[in-house]
């Protein structure tokens, strides 16, 4: 007699994922930096840490 165990797609996906203990930094490309800064501050409580200069364009890091 052969006994098999079926794994659901969710079981298979979560069985191989590492755990997440935090986020060191996050980089996002946004359409409107001023609008986005207000949204991230008001909704998520984020604050701008510094602005990284980019000669070819803008670059703000949160």
Can you describe what's shown?
The protein is mainly alpha-helical and 62 residues long. It has a domain at 26-62. It contains 2 helices and 2 strands; from the N terminus they run ααββ. It has helices at residues 9-15, 33-44; strands spanning 50-51, 60-61. It has a two-stranded antiparallel ribbon. The radius of gyration is 21 Å and the shape is elongated. The protein starts with 8 loop residues before the first helix and ends with a strand.
Quick rundown:
The chain has 62 residues and is mainly alpha-helical. The protein is built from two helices and two strands.
Radius of gyration: 21 Å
Structure classification: mainly alpha
What helical percentage do the residues reach? 25-40%
Question: Which regions have little confidence, pLDDT < 50, spanning 5+ residues?
Answer: none
Order of helices and strands: HHEE
Q: Between the first and last Cα atoms, what is the distance in angstroms?
A: 59 Å
What share of the residues does DSSP label as strand, in percent? 5-15%
Going across the major beta sheet, what is the strand order?
1-2
